[in-house]
Amino acid sequence: RPAGAVIGGARADSRTLAALIPLGIANHSVLTGSRVVVALDALSRGASPFTVGVLISLYALLPMLLSVAAGRLVDRIGARRPMLAGSVAIGIGATLPFAFPGLPALFGSAMLLGVGFMAFQIAAQKTTGELGGPTTRARNFSLLALGYSVSGFIGPLVAGFAIDHFGFRAAFATFALIPLVPVAVLG
User: Fold this and answer.
1) Which tens digits make up the pLDDT trace of 21-47?
2) Pick from 17, 30, 35, 134: CA 20 to 30 A from residue 150's CA?
3) Would you tell me the crossing angle of helices 3-44 and 103-130 to the nearest 10 degrees?
């Protein structure tokens, strides 16, 4: 490649990563915040600690069972569609308890949010690994991980604030709106 192409490619990779990280922060904020809202909403409805434990474990059940197949799918079809589908699933998962308050919606929400974020995350990691070369790969993954650290802080903070001031349904509504940004960008 000519030298200008390499520089242009590096700029394009930096722009891609700079766009990918906020999308990941948005989706991961919903995941981490919804765990708080789901658990507290279930407790407020009289769910036992065991039921709350099952609810929280459902965030990981489908990702545990489907992650290898999802990775193969991303390798076959590319990253954009799985990221878009994952973002849509995250939005629907957060909408369920808002639209249908009750324990059954919390169970469906936990599963949809978990599998949606898995789809998004696998595709995001594939994209991050393909950006730049071996010399920038560690930095790219570090920046992505830093973004998820930020969202790990933001999600529960937003959840607590929304519950305290507006209630559970409003917290779910807030989390249902956030994935609209990744859906719009990826769509």
Assistant:
1) 999 999 999 999 999 999 999 999 999
2) 134
3) 160
